[in-house]
């Protein structure tokens, strides 16, 4: 706590005995308990007559339902997403569809260049229905927002000027552009020329202690990992890392173009790195304090993905919306 500046006294003004004569123990630094939680809020649906008067909107919802049922029948969400193109919708139909879809817990961006903006953890990295959202990068090439129906994603592809050039829904575990961009960054890094002898011989700073062994572990696990394997997670929060270790790790793993924010009980920020199949996953409580910081080797961290159970639930709720329209 900041205290007002005062002129120091050469002798403390306090009695030697009695109350206040002895220093009080400082209160322990306790992490504040989370106070809030994001929960499912059903969208405020338009009148059924309004939806029924825009057959393109109803058709898009029916295609979403067909895609959900197809994935559920296949018994897995970890397959290529099903795409519903929204390019043919007029402005009114698009507005109604936005109202039905709402905004879920997960938002994401694919940046045009590597490097992630330093924004507050609570700020969503992208909200397709609100381009002025805090924390949004002006060089984003893809913006993604999960709808209130888990596993149904709004995906906007942007041109160099930021204008929308493609508008679609993707149904599945995670939109394909996020996976493609992360994979491309890893391939590009793997093809980069290795540092020369002079760079390799450059000594590390004196305060770098544990980072080299962690980087060696990441390299070994990347070589061994294959699709279907469990994620390999390094919990940085539990390791004795110096400031030099943290800076060296951040520099070596780099920053990729994919940033994902999952907002539930607190926030989880997921960022791709320049290393293949390597992600930085940081958890915050509802006061935006870091409670867990990890490096994960996987296809994509599960915390960002919709599960098969999510798709089953979404199929039921989209079917209810369509039944409501037909009944109206």
Task: Note down, in words, how this protein is organized.
The chain is an alpha+beta fold and 328 residues long. Among the domains are: 90 residues, no CATH class; 114 residues, HupH hydrogenase expression protein, C-terminal domain (Ribosomal Protein S8, Chain: A, domain 1). Helix content is 31%, strand content 20%. The protein has a 10-stranded antiparallel β-sheet with strand order 1-5-4-3-2-7-8-9-10-6, with helices on both faces. Helix 2 crosses helix 3, helix 2 packs antiparallel against helix 8 and helix 6 packs parallel to helix 7. It is elongated. The protein starts with 47 loop residues before the first helix and ends with a helix. The N terminus is likely disordered.
Write a concise keyword list for the protein shown above.
alpha+beta; 328 residues; disordered N terminus
Briefly characterize the structure.
By secondary structure, the protein is α+β, with helices and mostly antiparallel strands. Among the domains are: 37-104 and 307-328, no CATH class; 175-191 and 208-304, 2-Layer Sandwich (Ribosomal Protein S8, Chain: A, domain 1), CATH 3.30.1370. The protein is 31% helix and 20% strand.
Topology diagram in text:
Blueprint: H1 48-52, H2 55-74, E1 82-85, H3 91-101, E2 106-111, E3 140-146, E4 152-158, E5 164-171, H4 176-191, H5 197-200, H6 211-224, E6 232-235, H7 243-253, E7 258-264, E8 266-272, E9 278-284, E10 290-297, H8 308-327
């Amino acid at each position: 706590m900041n205290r007002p500046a005062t002129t120091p006294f050469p002798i403390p003004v306090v009695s030697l005995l009695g109350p206040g004569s002895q220093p009080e123990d400082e209160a322990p630094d306790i992490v504040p308990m989370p106070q809030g939680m994001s929960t499912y809020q059903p969208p405020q649906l338009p009148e059924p007559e309004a939806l029924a008067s825009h057959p393109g909107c109803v058709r898009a919802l029916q295609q979403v339902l067909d895609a959900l049922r197809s994935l559920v029948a296949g018994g897995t969400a970890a397959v290529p997403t099903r795409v519903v193109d929204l390019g043919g919708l007029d402005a009114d139909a698009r507005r109604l569809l936005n109202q039905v879809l709402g905004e879920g817990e997960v938002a994401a961006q694919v940046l045009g260049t590597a490097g992630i903006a330093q924004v507050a953890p609570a700020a969503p990295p992208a909200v397709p229905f609100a381009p002025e959202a805090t924390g949004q990068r002006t060089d984003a090439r893809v913006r993604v927002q999960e709808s209130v129906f888990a596993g149904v994603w709004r995906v906007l592809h942007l041109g160099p000027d930021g204008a929308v050039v493609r508008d679609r829904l993707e149904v599945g575990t995670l939109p394909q552009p996020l996976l493609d961009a992360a994979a491309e960054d890893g391939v590009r890094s793997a093809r980069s020329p290795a540092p020369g002898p002079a760079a390799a011989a450059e000594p590390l700073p004196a305060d770098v202690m544990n980072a080299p062994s962690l980087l060696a572990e990441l390299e070994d696990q990347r070589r061994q990992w294959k699709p279907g394997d469990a994620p390999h997670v390094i919990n940085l929060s539990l390791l004795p890392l110096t400031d030099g270790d943290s800076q060296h790790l951040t520099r070596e793993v780099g920053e990729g173009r994919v940033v994902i924010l999952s907002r539930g009980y607190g926030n989880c920020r997921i960022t791709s790195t320049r290393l293949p199949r390597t992600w930085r996953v940081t958890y915050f409580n509802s006061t935006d304090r870091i409670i867990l910081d990890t490096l994960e080797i996987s296809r994509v961290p599960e915390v960002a993905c919709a599960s098969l159970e999510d798709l089953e639930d979404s199929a039921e709720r989209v079917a209810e919306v369509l039944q409501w329209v037909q009944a109206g």
